[in-house]
Amino acid sequence: xxxxLIDQAxxxxxxxxxxxYTVPTHGLYPFxxxxxxxxxxxxxxxxxxxxxxxxxxxxxxxQWEDGMVPHIIFHQNDDGYFPGPDVWxxxxxxxxxxxxxxxxxxxxxxxxxxxxxxxxxxxxxxxALLPRIHAWHQWFYRDRDxxxxxxxxxxxxxxxxxxxxxxxxxxxxxxxxxxVGEFQRRDTSHANPEHRPxxxxxxxxxxxxxxxxxxxxxxxxLHDASPFQMVDPGFNAILIRSCSDVAxxxxxxxxxxxxxxxxxxxAKGIAAMEKLWNVSLGQYSCYxxxxxxxxxxxxxxxxxxxFCAIPSARAKAIAARxxxxxxxxxxxxxxxxxxxxxxxxxxxxxxxxxxxVNYMISDGMGEAGQMSVRDRIRDDSIRLIEESGFAxxxxxxxxxxxxxxxxxxxxxxxxxxxx
Length: 419
Ligand code: 9WN
Prior knowledge:
Layout: H1 2-15, E1 32-33, H2 34-44, H3 49-60, E2 72-73, H4 85-88, H5 105-115, H6 119-143, H7 157-160, H8 169-172, H9 187-190, H10 199-214, H11 219-225, E3 230-231, H12 233-252, H13 256-273, E4 277-278, E5 283-284, E6 287-288, E7 293-294, H14 312-328, H15 355-367, H16 371-388, E8 393-394, E9 401-402, H17 408-418
Helix pairs in contact: 1-17, 2-3, 2-5, 2-17, 3-6, 5-6, 5-12, 6-12, 12-13, 15-16
Bound molecules: (2R)-2-(alpha-D-glucopyranosyloxy)-3-hydroxypropanoic acid (9WN).
Family: Belongs to the glycosyl hydrolase 63 family.
Pfam family, one: MGH1-like_GH
Protein name: Trehalase family glycosidase
């Protein structure tokens, strides 16, 4: 049965493989996405190590000169997705978006490196990737943390990867919609509109894109000019974990300067995470840098914090929180607390379970010695696949498959968990 699931997962990866990159799923997302690629490479590595390295190399080949790695690379024309390259207007030879996504690549490279059977290839390819990934991390701490707090801000919900999370609702009230004009969404013709963000949210997503475009996508200006500046614990935890992994890799590959700076980024970030602890929720939560306030939103972003080396008392509290959430839903970990009024079990990041986030949280729980929670998350993830196939996300109460089907990173996580 389990080998059967691994074989099915491999077929999903192969179907979405475009040679040197994979699409998240045919139709809905016809280009290369940043954190999808890094996490999908983990799945490829189990049956084709060279292909896994290529996935990450293709992503990093489109890094901007300032170090930023864009969230979408538009390798070929396809009008099945909105907003396309003409809306972004980033003026690059191979068009890309102008914002970034969670920096999970450092973690993925280290994991693929550690497990590689072809050691010579792994050394060669990791060595070439290391300075590029480090330059991305330097970009984050320079341009997204200009005051040197130790934590970086996202400037667009798409950067978090959790597009319509409840976390952004209040801040989004301050993002205007004037001047946006008419546009035609394409996502709602591929997926059930009830599973997707609302039109009102889309107008604000596009306003931010137009605003940043009017500033020439100059990353030295965007942070201060953005009405949306959000410090997301999950996003920061992923970056911190990647910095720690890059530090270890750099030690191994004889790059002491990269190791030292990466370790300093991680140490400062972990200390600063403490400011995001939300006593009333008993978990981490987002901090709105524009208003200077912690946001009382019980989302999975605050649990994903466990992906980096938070203090053991915090990891224990998160384990307890996940256990409580598990009692309110059949499948852990819902992307929003099922007892909260904003919870919506099928609408994207406002309730559904996502396997990639499950994987990262369970990994963090394992590192923290919280084995029963780790195993519960992994078991629930596989039960979801058995009941509902390789969907983009799932209703945590009913297991209803939501969003796109035959989803690459979902399949990659199944191979990771079962191999
Ligand atoms: C915008 C590709 C991406 C994921 C994100 C997910 C969704 C895009 C969209 O799909 O976002 O980037 O158009 O909805 O929220 O996490 O990387 O799978």
